[in-house]
Every structure is written in C-alpha cells, then in structure tokens.
Amino acid sequence: MNRILGLALALSVLTMLYAPVATAHWPGQPEHQMAYLGDLQLEDGGVIKDLRMSYVTHGKLNAAKDNAILFMHGFAANHHSADHLIGPGKALDPDKYFIICPDDLGSPQTTFEHSTSPTNSGLKMNFPAYKARDMVKAQRLLVTQALGIPHLLAVGGISSGADFSVQMAVSYPGFMDGIFPISGGGLGTTQAFSFAPLMLSILESCAGWNGGNYDQNPKVCASNAMSVLIPFFFTREWWEQYIDAPESYTKWRNTQGEYYIDIQDARDLYHRQKAELRGWIGDTPGFNGDLAAILGSIKAKTVFLVNPRDQFVPKAYYETMVNLIPGAKVVWIDSVAGHLICCNADPNATRILGGGIQAFLQELNPPQKTAR
Q1: Is 368 a domain residue?
Q2: What is the pTM of this model?
Q3: How many domains does the chain have?
Q4: CATH at residue 147
Q5: Is residue 371 part of a domain?
Q6: pLDDT per residue over 98-120, tens digit each?
Q7: Beta pairing class for 68-72 and 152-158
Q8: The 3-state secondary structure of the chain, one letter per residue
C-alpha cells in the first residue's frame, strides 16, 4: 500500500472509530445522570462511602420493565463506548430497548464527572481495595436500586465489560435472560495478566507520581502506562494496512490520545489496574476454584461475539468458555481489527457484530416496539 493511500485509510478509520466517542455530550445525546447509592460493602471487607455511579440511558423502559439492557464499557473507557451500536434500526435499538450505559466504579477518565474513584472521592491512595466483582455489584445496584429494575433482558459489554457480563451471570444467576460478551469473557493469557504489573511499575517509577499523593495529575505517567496496551489492540495486519506512514501514525496517536490515552487520571488508573490483580472469575466464592462448576452455573443464554485473532484472548480460551457454559454459542468475527472488533475499527466487523447482537436479542423474545 502506498503512503498516501495508507494515510487516507488511517484517517477514514480514525473518523469511524473515534469521532462518536467524545468526552462530552453533543446535541441529541441523552442526559448524563448520577445515581447516589449509599455505602458499598466490598468483597474484601472495605466500604466505599456514598457511592456515586454515572450513567446514560437510551430509549424508554416499558411498563413491564422487561426491555432493559445493561451495557458495560471496556478498561479505562466510558459510557460512550457503545454509541456506534445504538440507534433506530441498529443492534441496540432505543425504539425497542432501554439501554443503560454506566461508568465503572473507579473510572479513571478525567474529562467529565463520573462514578466514585480514588481521586474524586478525595481518599486518593487511601481508597479501599476493590475488585471486579465489586464493580459488577455496583452496576447491579445502579440497575436495581437507582432505576428500580429487578430483572434485565440482557447484559453485554466490551473487553473488561465482557468479563463483567460473565461474572454478573455467575454472581447473580437469574438477574438477566441473556449475556453477550464482546471481545472478552473472563479468561485471559499470562501475557494479558502481565500488563497490570508493567503498567503499575511505569506509574510508580514516573516523575510526578509522588507515591500517588500528588495534587496535580501527572498525565504523562498515565499516558505512558496506557501505551503498553496499544500494540495489542489490533492485529499486525491492521497496523500495516492502516498505519503505514509516519503521518498516519501521528494522526492516529493524537486522536487516540485525545479520547483515550491522554485523558486518564494516574491515581485512578493505578487503583483500576490493582483491581485486575485482585481476583478473576475462577476464584468466585462458593465454588472452590472449580472453573467448570463456575461457568456451568450460568443460567443466562450466552453468545460470545469474538475475534479468533484477538491478541488478548486466544481462540482456545473462548472455546473453553463456550464448552463449559450450558448452551453457549459463539459468533466468530474474523478481522484484522483484532480485539477492537468491538469499536468500529473495521466496518465489516461492525456489521457482523451488529447482526449477531440483533439476532441474539430476538432469540430472547424482546417486547414489541415502544414509543421513544
């Protein structure tokens, strides 16, 4: 591919991938809301006082309250992650469904008021230790306590949000009819687990970190730590196809920085990465570490929408999960986009992903179209 064509393709992909994922709301977007959920008791014994959860909703909850879908974003992202899948006639159709998109407990982005985190709580490095199951618990409380919805039609998510989808189906069986994890599910390679210690060491050794007790966010520390993940988002073929010239890389990096890499709070990112090391689905209480029993306990209908070329989660890991979860299915989306088939990095992958979600939701027998 020549350099001019490569640059043009890279800019085109950047427009598709990042233009809808703004850090503030724009005309026509639903209102950004905040739920106040009281104290959150954590699995390891700590308590988060006065938990706040930020979120947006799309569509309307019907009278029966049986058209609600919870969609959870990926690591260090925000509630805009599914925007390209939401809209009339799209996979998550607000004319049919009530779509709830929260920001994780401990969200590290700095560009809007978000859910309780170490920094915005004022506790800084004294924030209590939390883990993925605490994050799942908080999002369930948002649905049941703040929104008054006792049962969901479906739960979905991207990357770590996909992991949370599976964990929620294990921890709260019967809470949803189905789950549709995208680019994740709870099992990861040793390589994937190694990212957390590496990112933590980058933060701890960075000038300006000051043991995490800084007053002004050392943005470069967070940017350097986040950069560890970037090469693994896409396949080598994607990089060669779309980023084949210095100019295209510079444009890609600047845009990626504006919406993801360079807008993280270093302290919140540190705590969020610590959460990655505090357990996984395989140590869910009550199962004695028996992964087969854990995944076999899932009652929700399950479909994985994943890429066999994902560098974070190999194909064999998805096959293991599908084999252990009763009745689970998989939609393979083979794409150069790698892990980011979730996020509009490949138009064909986005089309297949949307169709897979639509078909799955139809299987769950959703309600009739409701007025917007």
Answers
A1: no
A2: 0.92
A3: 1
A4: 3.40.50.1820
A5: no
A6: 999 999 999 999 999 999 999 99
A7: parallel
A8: CCHHHHHHHHHHHHHHHHCCCCCCCCCCCCCCEEEECCCEECCCCCEECCCEEEEEEECCCCCCCCCEEEEECCCCCCCCCCHHHECCCCCECCCCCEEEEECCCCCCECCCCCCCCCCCCCCHHHCCCCCHHHHHHHHHHHHHHHCCCCCEEEEEEECHHHHHHHHHHHHCCCCEEEEEEECCCCCCCHHHHHHHHHHHHHHHCCCCCHHHCCCCCCHHHHHHHHCCCHHHCCCHHHHHHHCCCHHHHHHHHHHHHHHHHCCECHHHHHHHHHHHCCCCHHHCCCCCCCHHHHHHCCCCEEEEEECCCCCCCCHHHHHHHHHHCCCCEEEECCCCCHHHHHHCCCHHHHHHHHHHHHHHHHHCCCCCCCCC
Q: Is 137 in contact with 88 (CB distance < 8 Å)?
A: no
pLDDT by residue (tens digit) across 142-187? Answer: 999 999 999 999 999 999 999 999 999 999 999 999 999 999 999 8
Is residue 372 situated within a structural domain?
no
Domain that holds residue 9: 3-363
> Measured between alpha carbons, how far is 13 from 18 in angstroms, rounded to an integer?
8
Identify whether 370 is part of a domain. Answer: no
d(CA 75, CA 233): 12
Question: Cα–Cα distance between 225 and 171 in angstroms, integer?
Answer: 31
